[in-house]
Amino acid sequence: MNLLMSLMVVLSLVLMTLNHPLSMGLILILQTIMTAMIIGYMIESFLFSYIIIIIMLSGALVLFIYMASVASNEKFKLSLKLSLLSMMMFMFMYIMISYSNKSILFNNNDIDKVSLIKIFNTMTAQMTLMMIIYLLFTMIVVSNIAKVTEGPLRMKN
Hints:
By secondary structure, this protein is mostly helical. It has one domain. It has helices at about 1-15, 20-45, 45-70, 80-100, 100-105, 125-145. The chain starts with a helix and ends in a 12-residue tail after the last helix. The model has no long low-confidence stretch (mean pLDDT about 75).
């Protein structure tokens, strides 16, 4: 858990220094996977984290496809200074989180483990079902509007 938390902090700091859209998308995907893993460990049920990772990765992959079609010919540069800085930050954060008071960071007794069940109880089941149907309808409409036969998202000269 400490390793995941320190990686999340380092990836957040690295994301602020990047300027290429594809590298930003890669960092976003890695942060999504780590967030899902942390949620799974904290709640002790990976079902909610699976749902989060599917939703976030599908949105990130749509952005990745759009950016790949728009910025396809840009050069990708890796900075040695940025790599060394991120390694040093990772080591520092890992040491700080490892030696800190663990009861402050993750106290599983305070987490309401049945809080995820509340969205599906009888009082809110109708609203949840309406939201699911609305999102499905919106996805079908957007899929029909964006026709595959009309080509890519941008016009080529």
